[in-house]
Design brief:
Layout: H1 5-8, E1 13-18, H2 25-36, E2 42-46, E3 49-50, E4 65-67, E5 72-76, E6 87-97, E7 100-107, E8 111-113, E9 115-116, H3 121-133, E10 138-142, E11 158-164, H4 171-185, H5 192-198, E12 206-210, E13 215-218, H6 223-230, E14 238-243, H7 249-258, E15 272-278, H8 289-297, E16 304-305
Parallel strand pairs: 1-10, 1-11, 2-5, 2-10, 11-15, 15-16
Antiparallel strand pairs: 3-9, 4-8, 5-7, 6-7, 12-13, 12-14
Helix pairs in contact: 6-7
Length: 310
C-alpha cells in the first residue's frame, strides 16, 4: 500500500484541491491523515465545508473524514455536534461561517469529523498558525469546490491536486483539463526586480506597467468587469501587468487579441507535489485505471497516483 507520508514529510502546511466534486479528494485526505498520524500531530481545516456523508452539491454518498486522537481540528461551531470524537475546546475565533464561528478543538479519541473552515485565505492562514500554536506538526487545508486559491504559497508550502472521471465522462477531456490546471499551478515566479515594483500595488485588482514608466490602476471588483475594460488599456508599449486573483479565459482572450508573446508568471510559486486520480464517476462510469493513469502521466511533469489502486 502506498505511503503518502514520504511525499509530504518535509512540509508543515499542505493544501488539497480538486478539479471537481467526487474526484477522490476526501479519500486522499483520509489516506494522508492515516499516514501522517503514525508519525506527526495533525492539524486539519478546510476552506468551505467538507466531511459530510452526503455531498450537499451532488447529493451522492461520500467518504467521511476520520481523524486520530491528538489531532487539532478547526471547524464551524454547528459542526461540532456531528463530530463523534471526544473533544477538548482549545480556542474560539471571531471568524463566522454559515456553520457558525470557527472553533479549534483537540481530538481526545479517534473518530469522524465534519469540517467547515473559513472562506478567506487570510483567515485560513491565521487558523493554520493557531493550530501550530496548539501543537500541529503538519497542517492540512482541504479546498472546496472551485477554491483553488488554497494552493497559494502564503497559505501552504505544498499542494496536491485531485482529478477524476467525475470531471467528464470523456477520459481525454479529463486529461486535457487536468494538464491545463497543472500548467497554471506550476507557473514560474517573476524576477525579484519586478516583484519589488509590484509590491506596492499588490492589493489592487489590476495594474498595468508601461515602458515609459506610466502605471495604470484599473478600478474593478471582479474578473468579469476587468475582462470587459482591459482591452482599452492594452498598448504596444505595455511592459508587464499585474492581476490579483484568477486569470479567467476572458482575460486571456483580451490579451491574445491585442498582444503577442505574452508570458504568464506568478508572485509566489506553487509547489505541486503530485496529482491523484479517481477513475470512478458517481454516474456509474469507470475509466480503465491503468490507461487513465498512463495517459495523464505522459502529459504532466509530476507523479500521478491512484490512492486506492497504487
Amino acid at each position: 500500500m502506498l505511503d503518502t507520508y514520504k511525499f509530504i514529510e518535509k512540509y508543515k502546511r499542505i493544501s488539497i484541491i480538486g478539479m471537481e466534486k467526487n474526484v477522490g479528494k476526501t479519500t486522499l485526505l483520509n489516506k494522508l491523515i492515516a499516514d501522517i498520524g503514525k508519525t506527526k500531530k495533525l492539524g486539519l481545516t478546510s476552506i468551505g465545508r467538507d466531511g459530510e456523508d452526503i455531498d450537499v452539491v451532488t447529493n451522492t454518498d461520500k467518504p467521511r473524514i476520520y481523524v486520530r486522537e491528538g489531532s487539532i481540528i478547526a471547524t464551524g461551531r454547528d459542526c461540532l455536534s456531528k463530530c463523534d470524537i471526544t473533544k477538548e475546546i482549545l480556542y474560539v475565533t471571531n471568524f463566522t461561517t454559515p456553520m457558525g464561528s470557527i472553533v479549534l478543538v483537540r481530538a481526545l479519541s479517534d473518530g469522524y469529523v465534519d469540517i467547515a473552515g473559513p472562506s478567506y485565505n487570510k483567515q485560513v492562514k491565521i487558523i493554520v498558525e493557531l493550530m501550530e500554536k496548539f501543537g500541529s506538526e503538519i497542517s492540512i487545508v482541504d479546498g472546496a469546490l472551485g477554491r483553488k486559491s488554497t494552493a497559494i504559497s502564503d497559505v501552504s508550502e505544498a499542494t496536491i491536486l485531485s482529478t477524476g472521471a467525475a470531471l467528464s465522462l470523456d477520459m481525454l477531456k479529463v486529461v486535457e483539463e487536468t494538464q491545463k490546471t497543472v500548467y497554471f499551478l506550476r507557473l514560474e515566479e517573476i524576477d525579484s526586480e519586478i516583484k519589488e515594483k509590484i509590491k506596492e500595488f499588490k492589493d489592487e485588482k489590476a495594474a498595468l506597467f508601461y515602458k515609459n514608466g506610466e502605471v495604470v490602476i484599473l478600478e474593478v471588483d471582479n474578473s468579469i468587469d476587468l475582462s470587459n475594460i482591459l482591452k482599452e488599456y492594452l498598448k504596444k508599449d505595455l511592459e508587464y501587468f499585474y492581476i490579483r486573483g484568477a486569470i479567467t479565459p476572458k482575460i486571456i482572450e483580451a490579451f491574445i487579441n491585442k498582444l503577442s508573446g505574452i508570458e504568464f508568471k506568478v508572485l509566489n510559486k506553487i509547489n505541486l507535489l503530485f496529482v491523484t486520480i479517481n477513475p470512478h464517476s458517481p454516474l456509474g462510469v469507470d475509466f480503465n485505471k491503468e490507461e487513465f493513469k498512463t495517459r495523464l502521466q505522459n502529459e504532466i511533469p509530476v507523479p500521478v497516483i491512484n490512492v486506492l489502486g497504487d
